[in-house]
Amino acid sequence: MKAEYLDRANRIATDNVSSAQQVLRDTVDLLLDFCRDYSTDPRFIQDLKSLSDTLSNAQAQMAALSNIGRLIVSVCDKLPAKEVGGYIAGLKNKISEASARTAREASKAISARKAYATLSQSEFVLRAFETAAAENKLAVVYVMESRPLFEGRQTARALKAMGHRSILVSDAAIGFFIDIIDSAFVGADAILSDGTLVNKIGSFALAAACKASGKDFHAVTSVLKFDREKDASRFLNKEESPHEIFPNPEYEVKNIYFDMVNPRLVTSVITEAGMLSPLSGLNQLETAMREIYG
Questions:
Q1: Residues of the chain with pLDDT > 90: what percent?
Q2: What angle do CA 41, 47, 30 make, to 5 degrees?
Q3: Which range marks the domain in which residue 25 is found?
Q4: Are residues 188 and 91 in the same domain?
Q5: Same domain for 160 and 248?
Q6: What is the mean pLDDT of residues 8-17?
Q7: Do residues 96 and 26 share a domain?
Q8: Domain boundary at 56, 77, 100, which?
């Protein structure tokens, strides 16, 4: 296997800035390129399964990577080697189509001249507001900056370019603005088997503020993010370098990347399968994943 594939897999494993959907696309592109270069190699299936396993474990918090890895390993056991690349190409198209469908579903909950909140960088959320802008539903969006890497700044810039009024606020200030907004939209790195939402740190604070103020809190994501093997008790959070928060600290610093949001704080999970309940809709998530992705 060429070193470039291991290098690309390592970049995927350490990508802390890109949206989860971009990481997923990078993963599928890597697998497609591998099929193109190695489909006639005698070790093709064995090496593809190994690479898929590596990628599925690259970022344990991202359920879509695990699900894609399992799908590819399963396909390698069921299809002739010459057909595997075609399946992965079809999978890439389905992922793209799912993003568009999810955006259309989420944009139904966005109205012109209303105010919303979001945080970090979610491609699903951005595409929802992009769809709303195309429908002339321009809104005000308060964007939490999302320390320590400040992905919120990229989100605010993108929303402004669409024509929305984007207002960047510090993560700790969302409680001050909560009475101004109508509802909140966030992405999701995973929906756990008990309905718990896993997303960038700050999601719990936003969800709790929405609950206290009677505002809706929506997770916009894909059914591929459903992790049927983990619940909140089995989720291992990701701790990164303390130097991202404070260079050369003289005391202990904790840098935690992900929040777990109790499903009772989540109004709905919006996916390519429609708007679902974070609790009663879990079976629909699993069924839709099987029907859409195989």
A1: 56
A2: 95
A3: 3-100
A4: no
A5: yes
A6: 82
A7: yes
A8: 100
CA-to-CA separations, 109 to 195, 268, 275, in angstroms, rounded: 21, 11, 10
Shared domain check, 242 and 111: yes
Considering the domain architecture, whether residues 235 and 138 belong to the same structural domain is answered as yes
Give the residue among 225, 227, 208 at the shortest CA–CA distance from 217.
Answer: 208
Averaging pLDDT over each range in 57-61, 70-74, 79-83, 122-126, which range is the top one?
122-126
Name the domain count of the chain: 2
Task: Check which CATH number belongs to the domain holding 12 and give it.
Answer: 1.20.120
Confidence of residue 1 (pLDDT cuts 50, 70, 90): low
| Confidence at 57, pLDDT banded by 50, 70, 90 | confident
Per-residue pLDDT, 112: 97
Pair of tokens at residue 189: 């790195």
Distance in angstroms (rounded) separating the CA atoms of residues 197 and 261 = 5
Query: Residues with Cβ < 8 Å from 239, sequence gap 6 or more?
Result: 254, 255, 256, 257
Domain end call among 100, 124, 148:
100
Question: ∠ CA 285-262-69 to the nearest 5 degrees?
Answer: 40
